[in-house]
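hey m, so remember when u said the tokens were messed up on ur end? i reran from scratch. heres the input so u can diff it against urs
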Amino acid sequence: MIGFSVLIVCHLVFTRYFLRSPTVWQTELVTYLLVGATLIGCPYVLKIGGHVSVALLPHYLSAPGKKRLAILGSFMGIFFCGVLLWSGIDLWHEAWAGGWLSETVWAVPLFIPYAALPLGFGLMLLQYFADLATLLRGEAEPS
């Protein structure tokens, strides 16, 4: 999605500045693709531990304290993603049932880009459950 966005922006620049032709769809599509890539890519980042974190408190905790803190963090992530999943499903459904269109010349049916919300947060929720299960079984060290 990010690579495709780069190509679209190159097309936009070439079309707008060299061919002097107006562009309609490029900016909107790039925005949707980048937001979608972020939301759908978040579970993978959680899986590999690539998120930004502050390790000051875990640094001073014992191993059981680190595990309890990681379990608490997983529960908080599950709650947060659950709320956003529910809200994302609600927003997606309203856009689909209401026939919402973007307020641009392109008039994209908004249920298509809004689908990234429940998809991304649903996958993130599943990854938090997987992380919690590995922590509770002792198969992984808390990050």
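this time it looks ok to me. The chain has a mean pLDDT of 93. if urs says something different then somethings off w ur setup not the seq
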